[in-house]
Design a protein that fits this description.
The structure holds 2 protein chains of 2 kinds. By secondary structure, chain A is mainly alpha-helical. Helices cover about 55% and strands about 0% of the residues of chain A. Chain A is globular, with a radius of gyration of 13 Å. Chain B is an alpha+beta fold. In chain B, the strands form 12 sheets. In chain B, strands 31-32-36-37-38-35-41-44-43-42-40-39 form a 12-stranded antiparallel beta sheet, with helices on one face. In chain B, a hairpin with a 2-residue loop joins strand 24 and strand 25. In chain B, helix 20 packs antiparallel against helix 23. Classes of the chains: A mainly alpha, B alpha+beta. The interface between A and B is large, with 45 and 49 residues.
Chain lengths: ~100, ~1800
């Protein structure tokens, strides 16, 4: 089961909006929204988003996370907002010191 | 074998035209589309095909049945329009293939470019069609009629010796009646060869025409024979193919006996688990011509058929088993006759039946001819279209040929389905199963070739060899290109508001679905593209749309945004582009070319399918590879053979990562993309390449000329060699690459700290820099990055490029770049090494080409330079889109447009559309027409677009294939069954209502009302019983209570009507019998007074009658009913006295011809040649004329021989109308029984889609949902319908009024359509004024009795108008209703009916108003809608005046509906649109329930135009909660908020409850729920409560959705259905957006309905009216302890406890499964009004999580209603927050 800290997901939604700049997305962005297929982002954007999340929450092992995604079969090489939020939530829960709010 | 391609050309034929009908594919376009898009068209047998109930047996225990339902069925696609072929519709019977084949022959010829063949060609055209001569529907009919009926009767006689001759005769008649007839028209259809005979006959072809049967090989054998005739010069043109358009059950049964059909009901050719085939239906044809002729004539050549080889199995093991030797021989013969080597084949369309033995034998035969793999890559794709459409037996070969011809024409390797793990036998062959649509990249020196297998039962094998037509390769003409996944649609306007209007206008014109449209999205896109001129200060909206519907949605979305004056731009991910500040016009465009790393398997494959110039670049790369003798060609890696596992797919990716492959593949892809952009007219001002992308950039800028095979080869080969040298040398330092999410400075700091051999190799953008160095140093850098929280990625390369380490290896390239000439170029080339334009001196250019390999890539700096130099548009020209992301990151926040031409997550063509969209929105000029250059698109003309919402006329008739069924109608069973027997069997269909199932109190209240209210008396079934037989009409009133005084009158009237109906029917029948042939006189003279008496029925659409018109509902003939008639259908014409012999002759003759041929009379042009044009042969002609002679009574006087010699209708009329010597005997009444004054019955169907005015007359419409509510026919429209019908009887008369109009019931369109029958009878009378009695019945009612009755008055002229009422009727007291508010609140009428422009005066005794004559345009879509005789809009408006008056003057019961009109008088014709009409009404109350008015309508000239006398409205007291149902602008909700977050409806429905029920249901229920509601077998009061509960629940949910996730759902979109346990479950299209549970509970009791919703599953509500419970209630409901707790408490607490139990049980979802003891009340807290309960018994076992928990229930009593609610008592954040985060974040 995916555990998502609602505050984390809210923050990620905010950062996505910031990153999206003047791009719009026809529909509600939910935890099931895919970054590449739905939002039309590129892998570099994920890195930029990851950097922004680190900026907000402190250091997180994003490189491994992204590498894991890169290893997936090509048709599943994408990431949902929920997956990212869950990952961040878990990382924060595991290392309470990492939360530099 | 070394035969060259040209050697055998003399024997080759060209395929120049094609047509087909296969499952899911009505034509070639759809067929090819389905193939390319991997559409599986295998389905269960549709009802049109065969009846699963009767013939399906999954276990095959009954071996006369079929164990497999699935197959490829044509179903509703099997239609035929006989009229264009000159086929009398009644002749369309017998075998369906003869009709479809005729259509396809025409289609195939049309595809080849001929609508009509020249005569010399016609006489030398052959038709050879493969056809199975299995038992078919036609034979079966004969067998059933001749054998089965007789044998069945014998069996019955054995069983019922008491049956006499009369009974047996009756049964015989009935059986023959229900079986399809065998007429003179159908008999020829039973002869197999008629299928080609008809083609030859209709198209006048005189070459050899015949059918052949070679089982599954039929099509290919047919082609072989046709080809032979062509080559031998027997003919010049041939149609060849195969047909199997219906799959008879006996054939399926035989295959089941052979165990050949798949037990799993899946067809999986070449899968290791394939277990059998599936059979299917289809037909296909190709047009063949000698290749040399086709080339000389400039025909479009899809493919060349080089040869067909045929062989039999000889003496195999069994005649049914396939034999390798026979198949092998057919293959060998084919290659021999084709003169080509099997190794040159790139695609095999296998027979591939998916039977284990069939697949194995085929693989073996193929491998014998093609050789084995020998460790090389498999070279030939294999697959079969059977995996998509199943095995169509005689048509299977042509299915494969068409597929391969298109594959060759479009250079596509088509996919095959359902092969998940290939048969291991294939491993040793040269074949690979192709499961994806891939470009057919080909670098060989021979043309692309394909082979098609077809191996038949009985051992007949065939193989066809096809080849692409090389000359066509360069100039592909549009021909059946697969549909694109999306199109770009561009609108242009002067201003943003103009753009918005354009968008809205287009959106409103678009049809709802592709199916309704007469044009495609591509047609529309290309039309729009054609309207875009050069950018000149205009503004543009560009939309990438996947369908017309998608376009509509996006247009509306865009228009919504543009409405905001502050909207500066729209940049929507889904593809909506607009900007108020374009950067494009005049800005410099930079092309960015990626280098290695951008490649991925399958890149640009979609682009290659759609743009030949892209594919040709890859062809060239393969050719170079092949010339170099490389074992792997570039396309082997770029478009790898489909992998069957994740591993295989990963390996394919890894192969592309190798340096040689990587550089070459990206270089090739860049060029391909550049070629496509060039075609679109996009040109760069600057080019830049990233890393090895520099060479593609140099090429594109013209700095070097590498655009030749030699040049490319030089670069590619040199890079490859350099890499090989580098790889083989042992001094190559192993490098590692690390991409850091950091800018250059940070990356350099990390590199410095890491120390050792590590360099900054690429500065891509602020968020990416790449370090390259020896692995240890890179590893140190990685750890530092980790420590610093810098995101990194280790790149999958091991080359030390862009560092000094690479310098020694780059030096080898100097000589490569020494060769090509270096020029100034036409475009500035930037260098990523210097970040500046390349130097001018050629040597320096060459130097940079080499040095860039060991110097860093300064991409970020180069982008900055480009921006500084004025570039504003950056397009990445190559795969994947990385560079665009870099550039975007670099230019973040600055005005620039950065777009990749390809991204990995979209098909490349779709991304191209996004690119084009963004460019044009920014004012960049492109040649948009090039997007359509290779496709068949047509211009959508404006009128077509404007009528796009009108459904296209669909004159085709369905060629139903259903097996004829022998069944008796219930009436006959009743009649014949012995009276003495208990009539159980025949009673069953008398529809005695079955009692509701008694359910032990489930959670859904509807069925359990009886259980909850034990004191309620037995339900009053009579109240809901469907109409009972006539005898019972007289006693109980069938009408809803509440019509009081009216009721008795109406009931009496109904019983009269019922008897009248019966009598009437009898008279009609005897009339018809006596008249012999029935419908004689022309209907035209009857329906249309305005038309001359002889004119044919003025229909503009073809109308025909089925050959075997079912005489009642029990018949299931072989021909389906025709499309609904657009104009009145005349059932029984009268015999009006018509003086003019000519008119009479014409009318009778046309009617007869129409009846006997099925042609609508409108089509029967008098000058048509009966035989040549109408296909009426001499036998039929004599039959018709004989009938006429009989019918007219002119037997003696008519010379049949003379008549039979006449060729046209006009000539026949001339002969007949010429009195032979003496005037004909005055036409006597045709038969004694004919009545003096005929009655005519007119049938009309009205539906929402056609009769648009109905959509503006809807009761109970939910303001948020346009499709909701109950449309009703306005009374005045009914008057018009009656008037039109009556006018038909009396030509040349005007309708001057109506009398005694009584409307007994509403004419509602519950299902969106209603069919009515209007019977019209001329009353006796001699004066000039005619009176016609009319009655309208609603055929949708189970037993139609008249709904409206009236008399219509007609006269040659309008009467003199009397003086109108004065304006003083309303005593000059001004009305308080503001003109602009008239329709805002109190009325439900839409704009078409808003004819009242102002209420002027209003007083107790009258009202005056101003009406306006509104236009009829847009009123109806019916093209043939006759002009109106009355003005129903003005009349309705006059009626509305009474409504407005009632609202103002009446304090109670002020909703009025008209139901009676004593007299309408009309004093003149229709008035011009826009004229103001003064309306003056004298109004009086008549008792408490009626309002009676006399209303005058006065024209602008002051003269009385129309007068209604005795217009009577019935007054309704509408419950406040129902009021929104009769008003348009009222409150949205019917329920009101109540206790504990619930909503409540007090179900108080006075008056016509059935009507209100309909209206109410129409407002709130979705389609599924309507069905559930209709099936509800409970009394009406409970039905209304059920609606109340649903209403409360839906409105509560609507509020919850709006407040929570912000979803605007309509009530119909909130679907509530009970689950298996009876618990209501909510669903809807919005459900995915609301994660987590949605609890819902409904309860009702005696007129009160409540519902509660929430975000938890545990939710239950119950409600009860307080009443004295029956004795024993306490004993049953409670145990001792509970009774203890209740003692001393007020009596109502027992009810509260009961409700609590119910509420808890409902909350569990199970209901009181163990009765009242399932829930035990453990505590009662009267102060807090709370109860505590626990689960017990099995309920506790079923819910362990709740067992033992004290469940709190809140209760209240309000007035006499007790309510209890059980819900989760935890604070909402505990159970909701964790599971539904976006409810709080996604507003």
């Amino acid at each position: 089961m995916t555990i998502v800290d609602p505050q984390v997901s809210a923050e990620i939604f905010r950062l996505i909006a910031e990153l999206a700049d003047d791009w719009e997305y026809d529909g509600v962005i939910t935890l099931d929204t895919l970054f590449l297929s739905d939002l039309g982002l590129e892998s570099l954007d994920l890195v930029v988003l990851g950097t922004a999340i680190q900026h907000r929450y402190g250091k997180l092992p994003f490189s491994e996370f992204l590498a894991e995604i890169g290893q997936r079969p090509v048709d599943r090489r994408d990431l949902t907002v929920g997956e990212l939020a869950s990952y961040v939530s878990q990382q924060l829960a595991a290392s309470p010191g990492g939360q530099s709010r | 074998m070394t035969v060259t391609a040209r050697d055998g050309d003399g024997a080759a034929v060209a395929i120049i035209g094609m047509s087909c009908l296969f499952p899911g594919a009505p034509d070639i376009d759809a067929y090819w589309n389905n193939i390319v898009n991997k559409v599986d068209s295998v389905t269960d047998a549709p009802p049109e095909s065969w009846d699963g109930e009767t013939y399906f047996d999954a276990d095959f225990e009954d071996t006369d049945k079929v164990y497999c339902r699935r197959g490829g069925y044509l179903g509703s696609l099997l239609t035929f329009d006989p009229l264009p072929h000159g086929i009398p519709p009644v002749s369309v019977g017998g075998e369906p293939d003869q009709w479809v084949a005729l259509q396809l022959a025409r289609d195939a010829l049309a595809d080849a470019g001929w609508s009509e063949l020249p005569v010399e060609t016609r006489h030398r055209t052959a038709v050879v069609l493969g056809k199975g001569t299995y038992l078919n529907g036609g034979n079966a009919k004969v067998i059933q009629r001749s054998l089965v009926v007789g044998q069945t009767l014998d069996v019955i006689k054995q069983l019922h010796p008491e049956f006499g001759d009369a009974e047996i005769d009756r049964l015989r008649q009935e059986m023959k009646r229900v079986l399809p007839g065998i007429g003179p028209e159908t008999v020829p259809g039973l002869i197999p060869n008629i299928v080609v005979g008809r083609i030859a006959n209709r198209l006048d072809l005189m070459g050899p025409t015949y059918t052949i049967d070679a089982a599954c090989a039929s099509s290919l054998v047919a082609m072989q024979l046709a080809m032979r005739d062509l080559v031998n010069g027997e003919c010049d043109l041939a149609l060849a193919g195969g047909s199997q358009v219906w799959m008879p059950v006996p054939t399926l049964n035989v295959f089941c006996h052979l165990n050949a059909l798949s037990r799993n009901q899946e067809i999986r050719p070449f899968d290791k688990d394939a277990d059998g085939t599936l059979l299917g239906e289809g037909i296909g044809m190709v047009v063949l011509k000698r290749l040399a002729d086709a080339e000389a004539d400039g025909d479009r050549i899809y493919a060349v058929l080089r040869g067909v080889g045929v062989a039999s199995d000889g003496r195999g093991t069994s005649v049914m088993a396939p034999r390798v030797d026979g198949e092998e021989l057919a293959l060998r013969r084919a290659y021999e006759v084709a003169g080509v080597a099997p190794e040159s084949i790139g695609l095999i369309e296998a027979h591939g039946t998916a039977t284990p033995i069939g697949d194995a034998v085929e693989i073996e035969a193929l491998s014998r001819v093609f050789g084995s793999s020998q460790g090389e890559l498999p070279s030939c794709a294999i697959g079969t279209v059977k995996s998509m459409i199943s095995h169509t037996i005689p048509a299977s070969g042509v299915a494969g040929v068409i597929k391969c011809a298109l594959a060759l024409y479009h250079k596509v390797l088509p996919p095959t389905l359902h092969c998940d793990q290939p048969n291991p036998e294939l491993d040793r062959t040269t074949f690979y199963v192709n499961t994806e649509t891939r470009p057919w990249v080909h670098g060989g020196d021979q043309p692309r070739r394909a082979g098609v297998n077809a191996f038949g039962f009985g051992g007949i094998n065939a193989h066809a060899v096809l080849e692409e037509h090389a000359a066509t390769g360069g100039r592909e003409l549009p021909g059946h290109q697969a549909r694109w996944g999306s199109e770009i649609c561009v609108l242009e306007a002067e201003t943003a508001d103009g753009l918005r209007q354009e968008a809205l206008r287009l959106a409103t014109l678009l049809p709802a679905g592709e199916a309704e449209a007469s044009f495609t999205l591509a047609d529309l896109a290309s039309t729009l593209a054609g309207q875009i001129g050069p950018s000149a200060g205009t503004t543009r909206l560009a939309i990438v749309a996947a369908s017309l519907a998608d376009l509509g949605r996006k247009l509306e979305r865009a228009a919504g945004k543009l409405a905001d004056p502050n909207c500066r731009r729209i940049k929507d991910v889904s593809g909506i582009y607009y900007t108020a500040q374009p950067v494009g016009a005049g800005a410099k465009v930079a092309f960015l070319f990626p280098g290695e790393g951008a490649q991925y398997p399958g890149m640009l494959s979609d682009l290659c399918l759609n743009f030949p110039e892209a594919r040709q670049i890859f062809d060239r790369a393969d050719r170079i590879g092949r010339d170099e003798g490389r074992p792997r060609l570039p396309s082997d890696d770029i478009f790898p053979r489909p992998g069957f596992s994740d591993d295989e797919r990963r390996q394919a990716e890894e192969r592309l990562m190798r340096m040689d492959t990587a550089i070459e593949s990206v270089f090739t892809a860049n060029q391909a993309m550049h070629a496509v952009l060039g075609r679109l007219g996009l040109h760069a001002d600057a080019c830049v390449g990233h890393s090895s992308g520099e060479y593609a950039a140099a090429l594109a800028s013209g700095v070097v000329d590498l655009d030749t095979t030699d040049g490319i080869r030089g670069i590619g080969g040199a890079l490859r060699r350099a890499y090989a040298e580098a790889a083989s040398g042992d001094g190559v330092p192993k490098a590692a690459l690390l991409a850091l999410a950091a800018d250059r400075q940070r990356a350099e700091e990390i590199a410095a700290e890491a120390g050792g051999e590590i360099h900054l190799a690429m500065d891509n953008c602020p968020h990416q820099a790449v370090l390259v160095g020896e692995p240890d140093a890179v590893d140190r850098a990685r750890k530092i990055a980790d420590r610093e929280g810098v995101i990194y990625e280790v790149l999958p390369y091991d080359r030390a490029v862009h560092t000094p380490l690479f310098a020694p290896y780059a030096e080898g390239l100097r000589q490569v770049f020494a060769r090509p000439e270096v020029r100034d170029g036409h475009t500035v080339l930037y260098s990523c090494t210097t970040g500046r334009p390349y130097p001018a001196a050629p040597d320096e250019v060459r130097n940079l080409f080499v040095e860039q390999w060991f110097r860093p890539v300064e991409f970020r700096r180069t982008i900055e330079s480009l921006y500084d130099d004025g570039a504003r548009v950056f397009v990445e020209v190559g795969p994947r889109g990385n560079l665009a992301a870099f550039a975007e990151d670099t230019l973040r926040g600055r005005e620039a447009l950065v777009v990749p031409a390809d991204v990995r997550h979209r098909p490349s063509t779709t991304q191209l559309n996004h690119l084009v969209g963004q460019l044009v929105a920014h004012g960049v000029d492109l040649d948009l027409g090039q997007l359509f250059a290779y496709r068949s698109v047509r211009r959508v003309e404006r009128p077509e677009l404007e009528s796009a919402r009108a459904p296209a006329a669909n004159p085709t008739m369905s060629l139903a294939q259903r097996w004829p069924m022998l069944r008796l109608s219930p009436d006959v069973v009743d009649e014949v069954m012995p009276r003495s027997e208990p009539s159980g069997g025949s009673e069953n269909h008398r529809a005695a209502p079955t009692p509701p199932p008694v359910v032990t109190s489930p959670a859904e209240p509807a069925p359990d009302w009886a259980a909850v209210a034990p004191s309620t008396p037995a339900p009053d079934w009579a109240a809901v019983a469907p109409p009972t037989p006539a005898a019972e009409w007289t006693t109980p009133s069938p009408l809803p209570v509440g019509l009081d005084a009216m009721a008795a009158v109406i009931a009496g009237h109904l019983s009269t009507m019922d008897r009248f109906l019966a009598v009437n029917q009898e008279i009609m029948q005897s009339y018809l019998r006596a008249a012999g042939t029935g419908e004689a006189p022309p209907p035209a003279a009857v329906v249309r007074p305005v038309a001359p008496a002889v004119a044919p029925l003025p229909v503009s659409e073809p109308v025909f009658v089925p050959p075997v018109a079912p005489t009642n509902g029990h018949t299931n003939g072989s021909v389906a009913a025709p499309a609904p008639f657009p104009t009145p259908e005349i059932e029984a014409p009268p015999a009006p006295a018509v003086a003019d012999l000519r008119a009479e002759v014409t009318g009778q003759l046309l009617a007869l011809i129409s009846e006997r041929t099925g042609y609508p009379e409108a089509m029967l042009d008098h000058n048509l040649d009966l035989e040549a044009d109408l296909g009426i042969d001499s036998i039929k002609r004599v039959e018709i004329l004989g009938n006429y002679r009989q019918q007219s009574g002119r037997v003696d006087e008519i010379d049949l021989e003379l008549l039979a010699a006449q060729r046209t209708i006009a000539q026949i009329i001339d002969v007949l109308a010429e009195p032979a010597g003496s005037p004909p005997a005055a036409a006597p009444p045709p038969a004694a029984a004919a009545p003096d004054h005929g009655e005519v019955v007119v049938r009309r169907t009205f539906d929402l889609a056609e009769d648009l005015y109905l959509g503006d007359h809807v009761l109970g419409r939910d303001p948020s949902a346009p499709a909701s509510g109950l449309p009703v026919m306005p009374l005045t429209m009914s008057l018009e319908i009656l008037a039109e019908a009556a006018a038909g009887l009396v030509p040349d008369h005007a309708v001057i009024g109506l009398r005694d109009v009584t409307a007994l019931r509403w004419l509602a369109l519950e299902k969106g359509a209603v069919s009515v029958e209007i019977s019209v009878r001329l009353q006796p009378g001699t004066g000039p004024e005619k009176r016609v009695a009319v009655e309208l019945r609603n055929l949708s009612e189970p037993d139609p009795t008249p709904v409206i009755t009236a008399a219509v008055l007609l006269a040659p002229d309008y009467p003199e108008a009397p003086a109108p009422l004065g304006a003083g009727v309303a005593e000059g007291r001004p009305s308080g209703l503001a003109p602009d508010r008239l329709y805002a609140g109190g009325m439900f009428h839409g704009p078409m009916w808003q004819g009242v422009t102002a209420m002027v005066d209003s007083a107790p005794g009258g009202a005056t108003a101003t009406l306006r004559v509104l236009p009829f345009t847009g009123f109806s879509r019916r093209p043939a809608e006759p002009p109106f005789l009355l003005d129903p809009i003005v009349l309705d408006a006059a009626g509305q005046v009474i409504g407005f008056w009632a609202a103002e003057q009446l304090a109670s019961a002020n909703v009025v509906f008209p139901f009676r009109l004593a007299a309408l008088d009309v004093f003149g014709p229709l008035r011009p649109t826009g004229e103001d009409i003064a309306c003056r009404a004298r109004i009086a109350l008549d008792g408490a329930q009626l309002v009676r008015s006399d209303i005058d309508m006065v024209g602008a000239d002051g003269r009385l135009w129309m007068r209604m006398t005795g217009w009577e409205d019935k007054r309704f007291e509408v419950s406040p909660f129902l009021r929104p149902l009769v008003t348009a602008g009222g409150p949205a909700d019917l329920s009101s908020p109540w206790l504990f977050g619930s909503r409540r409806v007090d179900v108080d429905v006075p008056g016509d409850r059935k009507f209100w029920k309909q209206v109410w249901a129409g407002r709130i229920l979705g389609p599924n729920e309507r069905a559930a509601f209709a099936a509800l077998r409970v009394p009406e009061a409970r039905q209304l409560e059920w609606l109340g509960g649903r209403t409360a629940a839906k409105e509560a949910l609507r509020a919850l959705l709006a407040a929570g996730p912000g979803i605007e759902a309509t009530l119909a979109d909130i679907e509530i259905q009970p689950d298996a346990a009876g618990r209501p479950v909510v669903s809807g299209p919005w459900r995915d957006r609301v994660p987590g549970p949605l609890g819902l509970s409904i309860a009702h009791s005696d007129g009160v309905a409540v519902a509660v919703v929430g975000a938890s599953d545990y939710l239950g509500i119950d409600v009860e009216r307080v009443r004295t419970p029956g004795r024993g209630f306490g004993e049953v409901a409670f145990d001792d302890e509970e009774r203890q707790r209740l003692s001393g408490l007020p009596e109502e607490w027992a009810l509260r406890c009961w409700c609590a139990k119910e509420a808890v049980a409902k909350a569990t979802g199970s209901g009181l499964s163990d009765g009242p003891r399932s829930v035990v009340i453990t505590a009662v807290d009267p102060l807090e009004e709370r109860l505590t309960a626990r689960l017990a018994g099995r309920l506790a076992e079923a819910h362990p999580d709740l067992a033992g928990v004290d469940l709190v229930v809140q209760t209240r009593q309000v007035d006499d209603v007790v309510v209890a609610v059980a819900q989760d008592q935890r604070p909402p954040d505990e159970h909701a927050a964790a599971t539904r985060p976006e409810w709080s974040t996604q507003r």
